[in-house]
Design brief:
Blueprint (H helix, E strand, L loop, with lengths): L1 E4 L8 H14 L4 E6 L4 H11 L7 E4 L5 H8 L5 E6 L5 H9 L2 E6 L3 H18 L6 E9 L7 H10 L5 E8 L2 H9 L14 H14 L4
Length: about 220
């Protein structure tokens, strides 16, 4: 299965989602290839930290981008059970090629006006990709959600996400939690945090719900 994690806007938490999904999938015993398709190469840095700290399972990670993205990933799909692609936050050739090869694209967005505009543009890009990749499934997930009940932006963002034609709102949210930032720094998934600190059960539940949604047809 090929999973792209992408957004037309940067800073939506794509790397956190891609790395968590990859590790949890690998923990299930499948061979996972994690693709860093972002010019910032944050995912490669994450994988390097994971390797340095000797965390298991080991992630196979490499950078792939540009016009050859489709062909390169198709080759890797013959060698691995699952491929997770962390795509950069803008409309690029890499993004469009990734959508042509993916089985599912996860589109994270933050409850803000700028992100809602980006989500609308991503809806158009996904629609164009579906014209050539008819089996592409697209879901959105709201990320970095503040727990303050007085903030109504998230309700407005959800309503807009539900109205999109080409991207299905999965009904899932990920909170704005320290645990997710720790994951990136330590090269782990939220399910692996500890034993120095108490496990963040809320973060684990959020990520596992997303994992089950993404891989429900696998």
């Amino acid at each position: 299965m090929i999973i792209a994690v992408s957004s037309e806007k940067g800073g939506t938490g794509k790397t956190t989602i891609a790395t968590n999904l990859s590790i949890i999938r690998a923990q299930k015993g499948t061979d996972v290839f994690l693709v860093d398709a972002d010019s910032q190469r944050s995912t490669i840095d994450f994988a390097a930290v994971r390797e340095q700290e000797k965390h298991e399972p080991v992630l196979c990670c490499a950078g792939i981008s540009g016009p050859g993205t489709y062909d390169e990933i198709r080759k890797m799909a013959q060698k691995f059970d699952d491929i997770v692609i962390d795509v950069g936050g803008r409309d690029t050739v890499t993004l469009r090629k990734a959508l042509l090869i993916a089985d599912i694209v996860v589109v994270p967005f933050i409850p803000s006006q700028l992100d809602v505009w980006g989500l609308d543009r991503m809806n158009e890009i996904v629609g164009e990709a579906k014209a050539m990749n008819e089996n592409l499934r697209a879901i959105s997930v709201m990320n970095k959600v503040d727990s303050n009940p007085k903030i109504v932006l998230k309700e407005e963002a959800v309503n807009i996400a539900k109205d999109l034609i080409n991207i299905e709102f999965a009904g899932l949210t990920l909170g704005y939690r320290v645990s997710y930032r720790r994951c990136i720094a330590e090269g782990v998934a939220v399910t692996e945090l500890g034993p120095k600190n108490k496990k963040d059960e809320k973060a684990i539940a959020e990520v596992m719900a997303l994992y089950e949604e993404v891989f429900k047809d696998a």
